[in-house]
């Protein structure tokens, strides 16, 4: 992982360039765009959350409305990010305007979290999800895509408040039930009954992994992948050095989680994904949230 660490360090250095060398802020309808020079640590007792939107579709789409529980966070255009502070506890981060993308997350004081909005157009319809990512990932893809920070103004806040007013009257009750369910699902062990696995690097034939599913289990001791009652790989939790988003493979949108770990003093890697499309994002986020516990910078 030395190369990745070097890329991250260089990216973070570039993000710290003097503001005099950066473009002037640009006013948009409801938000101001400015270059990302730094993402300061959260205030005492709070957590820092960054939501970043990749440009995955070629047409220009309208801004997405982003909320945390019932609190407006900002307007998210393509190639932009929102940086906010969130109180500790379990919270739902979600999109408005009738979108379905959302994620339940546990925030701890002084923690730093990154979500990325993935999106695509399928048969003329929008599809997207929110996936967890390593904090170092922001510097990497922000520089690569020329992303800017979107800072909501009073007009933007009014837009989001109006959108909130369209929520059903029992929205708070539904959120309470969903919060309890998310907390229960986060309890160990985390088990994904039908999952894919590939070592890093892999010499497996293209897409062979799609026909060889197994079961992923994470407990307080290890991460295990079992196929047909045979243990394929077991990674002790204490040996894990990094966890980050691993994109997708084989033409599917199922997100993969990449795990770096030490074995006999050598750096090794493995990647896993839920093989069931409609649960793949939720289970990816469950795996990510558990595996990053105790890692530096999380």
Helix amount = 10-25%
| N-end to C-end Cα span | 17 Å
Number of alpha- plus pi-helical segments: 5
Give the overall pLDDT as a whole number. 85
Strand content: 35-45%
Q: How many distinct beta strands?
A: 18
Q: Output the structural class.
A: alpha+beta
The radius of gyration computed from the alpha-carbon positions, rounded to a whole number of angstroms, is 20 Å
Can you list the strand order of the major beta sheet? Answer: 1-2-11-6-3-9-10
Q: What is the H-and-E element order? A: HEEEEEEEEEEHEHHEEEEEEEH
Largest sheet: 7 strands, mixed
Spans of at least 5 consecutive residues whose pLDDT stays below 50 are 5-21
Q: Give the overall shape.
A: globular
Q: How many domains make up the 3D coordinates?
A: 2
Summarize the structure.
With 298 residues, the chain is of the alpha+beta class. The chain has helices spanning 2-15, 136-145, 154-164, 171-185, 277-291, and strands spanning 26-28, 31-35, 47-53, 64-68, 71-76, 80-86, 89-95, 102-107, 112-122, 125-133, 148-152, 190-200, 214-218, 222-227, 230-236, 240-245, 257-263, 266-274.
């Amino acid at each position: 992982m030395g190369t990745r660490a070097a890329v991250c360090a260089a990216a973070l250095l570039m993000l710290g360039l003097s503001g005099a060398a950066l473009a002037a802020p640009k006013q948009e309808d409801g938000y101001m765009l400015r270059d990302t020079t730094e993402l300061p640590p959260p205030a005492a007792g709070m957590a820092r959350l960054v939501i970043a939107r990749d440009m995955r579709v070629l047409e220009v789409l309208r801004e997405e409305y982003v909320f945390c529980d019932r609190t407006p966070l900002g307007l998210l255009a393509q190639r932009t990010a929102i940086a906010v502070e969130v109180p500790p506890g379990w919270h739902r981060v979600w999109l408005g305007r009738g979108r379905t993308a959302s994620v339940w997350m546990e925030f701890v004081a002084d923690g730093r979290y990154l979500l990325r909005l993935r999106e695509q157009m399928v048969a003329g319809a929008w599809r997207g999800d929110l996936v967890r990512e390593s904090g170092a990932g922001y510097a990497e893809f922000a520089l690569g895509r020329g992303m800017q920070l979107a800072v909501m103004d009073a007009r933007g806040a009014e837009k989001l408040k109006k959108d909130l007013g369209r929520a059903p009257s029992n929205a708070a009750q539904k959120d309470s039930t969903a919060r309890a369910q998310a907390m229960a699902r986060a309890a160990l062990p985390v088990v994904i009954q039908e999952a894919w696995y590939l070592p890093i690097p892999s010499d497996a034939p293209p897409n062979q992994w799609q026909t060889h599913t197994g079961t992923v289990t994470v407990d307080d001791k290890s991460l295990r992948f079992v196929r047909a009652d045979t243990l394929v790989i077991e990674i002790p939790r204490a040996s894990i050095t990094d966890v980050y988003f691993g994109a997708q493979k084989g033409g599917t949108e199922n997100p993969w989680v990449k795990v770096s770990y030490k074995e006999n003093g050598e750096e090794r890697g493995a990647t896993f994904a839920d093989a069931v499309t409609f649960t793949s994002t939720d289970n990816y986020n469950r795996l990510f949230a558990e595996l990053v516990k105790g890692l530096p910078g999380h």
